[in-house]
Amino acid sequence: MTSPMTPYEAVVTKRDLRWYTDDHVPAEVLERILQAGRMAGSAKNEESNRLLLVTDPTVKAELAACGDYSSWIASAAAIIGIAAPSTHLRLFDVGRQAQNMMIIANAEGIGTCPVTLHNAARTATVVRLPDDWEMPLVITFGCPAQDHPDSPLKRRRLNLDQLVIRDRFT
């Protein structure tokens, strides 16, 4: 048995993954992932966001047709959409929930990838989103395929001295 990841390791080893096995994500792991999303802070403590868990193959396939680059997402064991009423949608809160869930998933050995579904109207129809709600992001979750190709966009990260500006821009 491998030792659990530290929080730091869970953050720095997380990579977006688009290649999954046919295995399901164990229910107890999925519960911990959803709980991590629930525990993210929210502006003014409103908790306006809702997490839409999609595991039905038909719904996953329909969602795959809603984005410009999302044809692959139906291969994920689960998709979680983050939705909120349009008047209370705060992208900062969406990001906090998404990152919490993806870090916990990584620590549990589950691959993830955030995805924008570009056709909002079609997405709303597929998931029966109320008229005054938006779902700006979905995240795929699945057991990582071991023999997946590298991303053609793979690159090295900036060094900290290239990324961090101290005190003022010059």
CATH topology: NADH Oxidase
Q: What's the structural domain tally?
A: 1
Distance between the termini: 50 Å
Per CATH, the superfamily is NADH Oxidase
CATH class: Alpha Beta
What is the CATH architecture assignment?
A: 3-Layer(aba) Sandwich
Give the biggest sheet.
4 strands, antiparallel
Put simply, the count of helices is 6
Number of strands: 4
The coarse silhouette is globular
Spell out the helices and strands N to C: HHEHEHEHEH
Q: How helical, in percent, are the residues?
A: 25-40%
Mean pLDDT: 91
3D structure, described in words:
With 170 residues, the chain is of the alpha+beta class. It has one domain (7-147): NADH Oxidase. Helices cover 32% and strands 16% of the residues. It has six helices and four strands, in the order H-H-E-H-E-H-E-H-E-H. It has helices at residues 7-12, 27-38, 57-64, 91-107, 120-127, 160-163; strands spanning 50-54, 78-85, 111-115, 133-142. A four-stranded antiparallel sheet has the order 1-2-4-3, sandwiched between helices. Helix 2 packs antiparallel against helix 4.
Quick summary of this structure?
With 170 residues, the protein is of the alpha+beta class.
Based on the model shown, name its key terms.
single chain, 170 residues, NADH Oxidase, 16% strand, globular
Strand-helix topology:
Layout: H1 7-12, H2 27-38, E1 50-54, H3 57-64, E2 78-85, H4 91-107, E3 111-115, H5 120-127, E4 133-142, H6 160-163
Antiparallel strand pairs: 1-2, 2-4, 3-4
Helix pairs in contact: 2-4
